[in-house]
Amino acid sequence: MENSNGAGAPDTRPTPEEAAAALRQADSDRTAMERLPVPGWYYPILAGLIAGAMLAQLLPSPFSFAGSLAAAVGVGALARVYVDKVGVLSWLTPRQMWPPVVLILLFLFGALVVDQVYDQQWGWVVGAAANAAVLIVFGALYRRSTGERT
Amino acid sequence: MMATDTSTNGFDQTIHAPNRLRICAMLDAATEAEFSAIQERLQVSASVLSKHVSVLVEAGYVQQRKAVRATRQRVWLSMTAQGRRAYRDHVAALRAIVGEDSE
């Protein structure tokens, strides 16, 4: 689509200064969408749900699955409440997301290995605490980067 | 001074109107955004925003979805694939006008 004319606007191109100003404004709006404010309760609840899903593995078979399922439903509900509150559905950029995701998967995999290979269940407790800490720290850092207080 | 380089071919008058460029910038960064969230950021009236959104919808760049939540109707906006392409081409054209390399 080239040089479309919308709403009767004349097909005039901006000067370099005008183009630079338009780019600055667009970058600022884009950044605002990429760094949405997150309520203080969001990451602690998310941390609780993730830790709960891991701790549910300590329960006997049908209950461990039910616990994980309940935690997954909880994460979905939390995300929905958040999206409704801010009015924007947006994903973190890969750069923002990979550090906590890699750590969470590492602790999850570690707990699974300790359980399956060594038949030790303490890994789930340690993993749950570690993942809760990862999410709370990540949440605090994210909120600080968006200029929010505690 | 006007740039005439062929790399500015993606320049799009429909997008370039200041508020429409801002709407596209926000929607390109999100999967979906509520009408009122965009309105709050732009600091314009609902009717002004509605007019700009209509132009973008007509061009096939933006789509609207209506949803009722807690008895209130909310309008969610998102960019179409065509809209994202046009917006990115337009940004590349602006960068070319400024004299920067496009991303």
User: Which range best describes the helical content of chain B: under 10%, 10-25%, 25-40%, 40-55%, 55-70% or over 70%?
Assistant: 40-55%
Instruction: Give the biggest sheet of chain B.
Output: 3 strands, antiparallel
Q: What assembly state would you assign to the polypeptide chains in this entry?
A: heterodimer
Secondary structure class of chain B reads alpha+beta
Mean pLDDT of chain A, nearest integer? 87
Order of helices and strands of chain A: HHHEHH
* Beta fraction of chain A: under 5%
Which word captures the global form of chain A?
Answer: elongated
Low-confidence stretches of chain B: 1-6
Sheet of most strands of chain A? none
What is the element layout, followed by pairings?
The complex is a heterodimer of chains A (150) and B (103).
Chain A: H1 16-34, H2 42-55, H3 61-86, E1 88-89, H4 94-118, H5 122-145
Helix pairs in contact in A: 2-3, 2-5, 4-5
Chain B: H1 13-16, H2 18-28, E1 32-34, H3 35-42, H4 46-58, E2 62-69, E3 72-79, H5 81-98
Antiparallel strand pairs in B: 1-3, 2-3
Explain how this protein is built.
The complex is a heterodimer of chains A (150) and B (103). Chain A starts with 15 loop residues before the first helix and ends in a 5-residue tail after the last helix. Chain A has a domain at 42-145. Chain A has 150 residues and is mainly α. In chain A, helix 2 runs antiparallel to helix 3, helix 2 packs antiparallel against helix 5 and helix 4 (94-118) runs antiparallel to helix 5 (122-145). The radius of gyration of chain A is 22 Å and the shape is elongated. Chain A contains 5 helices and 1 strand. With 103 residues, chain B is an alpha+beta fold. Chain B has a single domain (10-93), classed as Arc Repressor Mutant, subunit A (Orthogonal Bundle), CATH 1.10.10.10. Chain B contains 5 helices and 3 strands, in the order H-H-E-H-H-E-E-H. Chain B has helices at 13-16, 18-28, 35-42, 46-58, 81-98, and strands at 32-34, 62-69, 72-79. Chain B has a 3-stranded antiparallel sheet. Chain B is elongated, with a radius of gyration of 15 Å. The chains are: A mainly alpha (150), B alpha+beta (103). Chains A and B meet through helix 1 and strand 1 of A and helix 1, helix 2, strand 1, helix 3 and helix 5 of B.
